[in-house]
Amino acid sequence: MRVAQNSPQTPALCNCAASDKPEKGEPAFPEALAAAAPSRHRPGPRLQSNFTPSSLLRTGQLSNVDLNEDVRELETELPRPYPNEIPHNEKLLSLKYESLDYDNSENQLFLEEERRINHAAFRTVEIKRWVICAMIGILTGLVACFIDIVVENLAGLKYRVVKDNIDKFTEKGGLSFSLLLWATLNASVVMVGSVIVAFIEPVAAGSGIPQIKCYLNGVKIPHVVRLKTLVIKVCGVILSVVGGLAVGKEGPMIHSGAVIAAGISQGRSTSLKRDFKIFEYFRRDTEKRDFVSAGAAAGVSAAFGAPVGGVLFSLEEGASFWNQFLTWRIFFASMISTFTLNSVLSVYHGNAWDLSSPGLINFGRFDNEKMGYTIQEIPIFIFMGVVGGILGALFNALNYWLTMFRIRYIHRPCLQVIEAMLVAAVTAAVGFVMIYCSRDCQPIQGSTVAYPLQLFCADGEYNSMATAFFNTPEKSVVNLFHDPPGSYNPMTLGMFTLMYFFLACWTYGLTVSAGVFIPSLLIGAAWGRLFGISLSYLTKGSIWADPGKYALMGAAAQLGGIVRMTLSLTVIMMEATGNVTYGFPIMLVLMTAKIVGDYFVEGLYDMHIQLQSVPFLHWEAPVTSHSLTAREVMSTPVTCLRRIERVGTVVDILSDTSSNHNGFPVVESNPDTTQVAGLRGLILRSQLIVLLKHKVFVERANLSLVQRRLKLKDFRDAYPRFPPIQSIHVSQDERECMIDLSEFMNPSPYTVPQEASLPRVFKLFRALGLRHLVVVDNRNEVVGMVTRKDLARYRLGKEGLEELSLAQT
């Protein structure tokens, strides 16, 4: 290595900024105050902007997103004020989210290692990938079994206690005690579930699907794939379902599968501080993300017994990058997951050789002979899709305003716990009152009700409303699909649909681990069955108007109207019912529900991603954005580094909290002039920190103080939690040393000319999963840098193309 002669003491400053992080200094209390970044000057056409440059915005931190760790460490000594109201505006992009590096840095170390690996070693790596996928499948299946068995036992115990109590007090009066017991049991169980989420790991709240969608899109959500998150998620979802909330345990399985995949593929646990020294080759974002998509698919597969649906879910909702080998591995993980769950549950239920429990929810068999459909029913199904789309849009709109209210006023953890307990108690009270007021009695003989409540019915009869409320939501869905015609009074179904719709809407977004799949199916199954009953009245009891069939279509319409998934949901519903015949009507219903729902409001998951101000990149750039070029979109000015740079300069740049950049173009500059020469490469903050930590300086190499060359293993060992720059000590003498970046920088970063249109830049950035895209002029000199936030800021609003403001939330 050679020491650069007469190197100037300042970093080369190109006229552009490599920011994947905030450009402004961070306010003292990020939860409470956020200054919108001023709009940069752009020579191109003026866009309609929603903010004035001077506007000060105060935004709230969403309960299920945590702050960056480094920031948290620096803030421990500061008191955290909780203002009574936190104004929140969705027309913002948060600067606190980082991007993942999906693109490999092809520096000299990487190329040397790849050249050393022979064909046999590559095959070993490929075998390891298959082994990891098998392990993901097995563990996800076991976690699903654990959740299912614990929920079944605890919920069974709770319902038996309450049923005995109700039966006792029905005879001698004083049913208010039963109401109090039911509400208290629910509220206390949910309190425990909410406390662990609110105080230990807020990112475990909700179903976790929006967070996994963001992760697979390339956004690093803090703590989302930690072991602690998995433990809280599993315990939280058990307590939420047992606590009688209007939630399902299927959605969180997707998040659980993703965490399991991220943990296994790294061969170590940073939470437990244990390194098993296996799978070290996979310690980078590229590999980790592929495994996380396999974990998400295995989660869907375990939840619904739908391995093909799992693969399609990962494809439709998550992974930005796809290839044939990945598809095959993900399908393998999904199949193993379903088989594991099936085997263990079959043994648990005492019929070891009968593999009849492919998923956590089994919709039961739908018979072709009894429940076929005719061509004249297709318009009826399409009409049901329209109803599902409208009801789904209403659900999402109500949930949107409720979430905005929560962000503004219910941001303290203790308030979040109190709200969860209130919802649990109200759910029990509503259920009790509805059962108490219902006079819909059905004969017990021949029915499959788990906990029949007699209440005021005659002997040998049970209260039909109780089968819907006095049960876990999964069982209620199956009852609505398969109970014979005449099992439910239309009034019972109408009241149940109305009440459950508002309860489910209120429950989604609470600080508990819970999914929205099953409540949506239950609401849809209830109004679908009601629709079927009405049809059979109108057609004088025609054989084709089977209420169970319409319950299935209603369930599909409602779920499609809320979450707006099409391809994967069609296959999941087909696999869960075990009937291909319904593929076509289910597809029609889901397509109609999506088209109608999208006309009014976004899908539930996309809406929550937007409310968290996440810089999420959709499949395509906004359609009207061809008039914008890279010059107008890019960040400026960029902090560039020389190929051989002074250590003090590097430390100062990394310590500068006002810029906090993550990628630095490396340029070759002439020491005699201030003119910046052409682009030579790109180096990341994480790489520079490892270099400083190991003190890889030119002088030391010349004096042979450091015998060992840095290997790629040193970078992988530091991944994913690279130490903050504040923890690295550099002495005054060391600051004067030089550091040679040639070996460690990526010498061939992706670049675009400044005249490239926004859709072209977007396509390159999105398809390759980039974190930084360097903008150069015709002399190959750096003029700007495009990062995820520069592209995510532009979106299609009601009045055309909008530019969002960047804020430190």
UniProtKB/TrEMBL annotation:
CDD domains: CBS_pair_voltage-gated_CLC_euk_bac (cd04591), ClC_6_like (cd03685). GO terms for cellular component: lysosomal membrane. The keyword Ion transport applies. Residues 1-12 have a biased composition (Polar residues). It is a multi-pass membrane protein. The chain crosses the membrane at residues 130-151, 179-200, 230-247, 291-313, 325-348, 380-402, 417-437, 491-510, 516-538, 550-574, 580-601. Residues 745-803 form the CBS domain. It comes from the Eukaryota. GO terms for molecular function: chloride channel activity; chloride:proton antiporter activity. Residues 1-28, 34-53 are annotated as: Disordered. SMART domains: CBS (SM00116). Pfam families: CBS, Voltage_CLC. The keyword Transport applies. InterPro entries: CBS_dom, CBS_dom_sf, CIC-7, Cl-channel/antiporter, Cl-channel_core, ClC. It is found in: Membrane. Keywords: CBS domain, Chloride, Ion transport, Membrane, Repeat, Transmembrane, Transmembrane helix, Transport. Its main location: membrane. Belongs to the chloride channel (TC 2.A.49) family. This is Chloride channel protein. It comes from Anser cygnoides (Swan goose).
